[in-house]
Amino acid sequence: MIRRIVGQAASVVVVLWGAASLAFLALRIIPGDPVDVMLGPQAQVSEDVKDAIRAELGLDRPLFEQYVTYVGQLIRGDLGESYQLRMPVAEVIGRQLGSTLQLTALAMLIAVVLALSAALVARGPVSRGIVAATELVLLSSPVFWIGLVLLSVFAFGLGWFPVSGTRNPATIVLPAVTLALPVAALLGQVLRDGMEAAQRQPFATSVRARGAGHARLTMHHTLRHGAAGALTLTAYLVGSLLGGAVLVETVFARPGLGRVTLSAITDRDLPVLGGIILLSAFTFVLVNVIVELLHPVLDPRVRTETVRTRP
Amino acid sequence: MSVGRRVLFVVALLVLAIIALAAVAPDLISARDPLQTDVRGALQAPSAEHLFGTDQSGRDIFTRVVHGTGRSVGIGLLATGLALVLGLLVGTVAGIAPRIVDVAAMRVTDVLLAFPEFLVALIVVAVLGPGPLNVAIAVTLAAAPVYVRLGRVQTRTLAAAEHVEAARILGVAPVLAFVRHVVPGVLGSLSVLATIGIGSSILAAAGLSFLGLGPAEPAPEWGLMLASGRNVLAQAWWISVFPGAAITMTVISASVVGRTLRARAEGRSS
Amino acid sequence: MSALAVRDLTVTIDGATPVDSVSFAVEPGQCVAIVGESGAGKSLTARALLGLTPSGSSVSATALTIGGVDARRLGERQWRKLRGERIALVSQDALVSLDPLRTIGAEVAEPLAIHRRMTRAQRRARVLEVLKAVSLPHPEERVSQYAHQLSGGQRQRALIASALAANPSVLIADEPTTALDATVQARILDLLRHIAETGTAVVFISHDFAAVRRVADRVLVMQNGRVVESGPVAEVLQAPQHEHTRELIAATVHEPHEVTAAEVEPVLEAVAVSKSFGSTEAVSAATFTVHRGRTLGIVGESGSGKTTLARMIVGVQAPDAGELIRHGVDRVQLVHQNPLGAFDPRWTIGRSLDEALAAGRVPRRQRPARSARLLAEVGLAPVLAGRRPSALSGGQRQRAAIARALAAEPDVLVLDEPVSALDPSVRERILQLLRRLQEDRRLTMVFVSHDLDVVLAVADEVLVMQDGRIVEQGATGEVFSSPQHPFTRELLAASARPE
Predict the structure, then answer these.
(1) Do B226 and A145 touch (CB under 8 A)?
(2) Residue C499: pLDDT over 60
(3) What domains, with CATH codes, occur in chain C?
(4) Is the pTM of the predicted complex or chain greater than 0.90?
């Protein structure tokens, strides 16, 4: 058991280091001089000033030296300084992280509740058909379109929810629901497919032959099978939420990492971009580790301490 | 296949046919100029004259949606095609290569696979910078890992399949056995995946355009139109809603066709 | 009063009657067997007794009394009260019939949780009690383990325990031993016999007459949904009245092989051949000789190494140690265990045959004629060449696989479990085909099987394998009339042919 945790920790470090190196490389080898890109095509700045900026940012040192400095800073928790905002990247990200986390967490919660309800409630062929059709539409729609439609109907149309701003806690409802819907659709689909597949297995016949009804078969047996399958999707869903958050924040004009990322992309603010990429990598690694550790809990066949004895 | 399924399949095919027509010959559906402005006729609700209404500059939304089809769907289509080829090449090589090569390739692919397409595309655009070409590259790179993984898994499975071994025992040359029995199978499953995957590529491209990272105004492009309609959502919902509906319809149809083809392919081989 | 009384049980699905007027009764302490080929309606009858027929079917009967309860017009709720409490089911293959995500203890306790009000301690006590009753060793440990952690035989005992937990009056065992090795089968059958003797009424469904003889008092023979014969086991097996019964019994007794007293010329020699996969030794120090024109049978249970040995003979796998010497033969072909998997599913049979001929360097012009001749030789109609493997029956697929192997004009033909997946009547015909081919082509054959009866019917010489070693070898008649090794004796006892 200890070996597994150490192994996981080691692979976490390796993946993070790999992501950091990739981010470094990617941002350094893009075409065009970083300073030119940063200043934009309109800027009329003399070469001397540009050189000064380069020196200040450390861009004139040899590549390897830059890399070492970079990694050294990372270990100390220093993500560099934003080109545009002249603030530590960590601070830039940190200030907006909370808002995005709130939104994402609430959306995840709503998604799980929706998916579970749909999977448990849809029993007959008609309800199953309706749920499947809804899932198809939700998964085929751009999440930002869903957001705009919801805004249109519920905020502008019916006036149930405020349109924007963050003072009022009610403003988080529409964005969270928007973000949750596609995730709920995918989760519900996977959960249902897993449960239905389990119901067709021979053991389901054994369970029914013992006198179990549908409720018992679902709650005590097939739900677990479906959940085990859905668990493998967790990292993907988290990624879906993060990507969706960028879009949803834009639609609802909410502060958060979406705004930071977008301005960093358009302003070519490389340190901030690097920080965001690292944050994404870290999130994934974290989620994957949690899933890896949870998997044996749900599926005993994956556990390694099995002892087989013959008759 | 039940009647309902069959009807759905046919309808989806029809929709795709219309989309294809709009992409290659938009003038046949709407002969108006998508860039034609008419400031006095701005922000008009949908009517007989303007089926989808007009936008802030008085341009006819219906025409813009039709003429934007090529641009909006094209990137997704291109990306899927390239990703399929990549999947075939890299996947088959990884499937038969020595373990080390295979493991290395798969680790990289697995990391990429954990991220949904849109996020990967976003990160690639973050690195390369905005612009329609970069969006195309980004969506291709984002789509490729799924095909590479499937290509590799299928190659491995098929190469070890009994009938391939049987062919070799009979005396068929290994390379010939591979080309005849493994490659068609891999290509087949990748193609089915492509029909299903094209939807997410279209969504990813639309998302990037919505954020303003793709083609620039005044080009008619669905994601871009959605974004420009956001500011006037209260007064003119039609500017955003119709392009979004177009995206949704395209992706639904592609998914339905893709899933039906996959069900058929699975039914045949089992 | 009978524990189970059935009269004119009929199941209708989509206008067909897969179960037609079946009648029988089982007293407490009795075991009644239902035999028939696949598709005869045995499993559907079992399902009807539990109220678990597929949706869209309708069940009717003049009498259907289970444990004293009239079950003819019960709703789903009422059926649930009966299931597990008065009538229980044991299916094939416990690995998939037990929920792999739940502990053995939870599975065995489920009928109690559904039908009884017991405290946790009482439940646990009862679970241990019933696990001991099925002779599962170390029940206290097993209770918190999972199905995949137990061996095949142990799992099946646990499955039986889960059916007996609430003390039902009727137990239906649907092919409960089919997935098990012969020696393990025998022990489970004895357990079922014991369960019957302690007062439960047992319905035993099988296609295996040897098993039926071991376990049952009475037997019903089903064909196409109807009962064609019934009576005490000894009588029916000794003097079958109905033609189908005679067919079925005849199919289990294969024509004993006439050992050809021809010259003995070694074609293939194995000297101390060994092969390991990782840390497991699949085959160790195998030494034997294969003679021209004769058949060598290799018999053993799963995991005995027989398939690995066969693959080494073909040349697909190379031994880690020892030698395989060929004397004057270089064409050795293989007929796979699973003919469906051995053909490219997208190709027609004809195209696969053509490929085999091409690989054997037969010129293009001659291939159609040769193809036709091969098909005729194995008894396949020419029209089948245009079909895909999935469109053929099991027997036809096997013939096609043999034809393809013969396309390469082999001197030695290795067959890996060629008839295991086939119905008994089809089996005999394939064996006849193989005998004829051997005569006509002077073919040397190596025949691998876990089924003793089949090996006895085809082999001149036999190798008995256990855990990778050859424990006994020699002429078939001798080895089986006077077995030396305890394992061979066990195999023979487990097979229990109606002598």
Answers:
(1) yes
(2) no
(3) 4-250 (3.40.50.300), 266-494 (3.40.50.300)
(4) no
